[in-house]
Amino acid sequence: MIINIARQQFTLILRSKWLLSFGLLFAFLAIFISYFGHSSGSGFEGFSRMSASLLNLNLLLIPLIALLVGGLFLSGEKEDRGLMLLLTYPVNAITVILGKYIGLLVSLWTVVTFGYGAALLVMYIAGVDVAIGVILKFYMFSILLAAIFLAVSMIIGLVAKTRFQALGASLIVWAFLVLFYEFLVMGLSVIVPKQSVLALLSVSIFLNPVEMIRVWSVLTMEGASVFGPSLYDLTVWANGFFGQVLFGVCGVLWLIVPIIISGIVLKRRVGNE
């Protein structure tokens, strides 16, 4: 039943022209950064300026796409009563949530794959040598980022009463996590005692999936030097076994917990109908 719901959701979202627009925009920006970054002498080897630009593109655009896709489509189905109609069949709430999530995730995977594929094709035609290993790391982190924010968007879509509310909530969540969160952390680091700053920064990384993916990506591509000598102890710990395990565990939690919450919200909403 989960596969059937996922297939139906994927078919519906493929008809969306604005998702195609997002895909074309992502592909264009990925091509632009990759090609002109190489022309300026910055390649894919290690963590270069081009790698940083491509990472920032992922951290800005992918969360926005994922939040809008999940929030708007789910709230739209709820507003049109299509979601409630689906729940009249012998399926439970978590089955519906998983089916919707998988269908939407496949659509986002298609967009990200198209963007990276187009960039690689242009680089190949231009005769540019590309470190496939680095590109694959970017690609995997992009998929993980999309999966996490799509899971968060499921809560937004179920809680919002209308598409307009879902749109507003998605933009607020995106702006806070992507744009304002690091300023909040910087402000807190000034207030807390100096000996607590490192602990604050460490915790703040895992409380925001954007920062978690940013730091994890940089460490994986051996770019720890960008954090400076003041965070040397943090980077050494994060690069170690326990640090990498914690990154993995937190990534899984950011995927699972929002989906579980979405199932609970939907189940309660059905009970109140």
TrEMBL record:
Coiled coil: none annotated. The chain crosses the membrane at residues 18-37, 57-76, 83-102, 108-126, 138-160, 166-185, 197-221, 241-266. Keywords: Membrane, Transmembrane, Transmembrane helix. The keyword Cytoplasm does not apply. One of its GO terms (cellular component) is plasma membrane. GO terms for molecular function: ABC-type transporter activity. It holds the Pfam family ABC2_membrane_2. The keyword Iron does not apply. This is ABC transporter permease. The lineage of its organism: Bacteria, Bacillati, Bacillota, Bacilli, Bacillales.
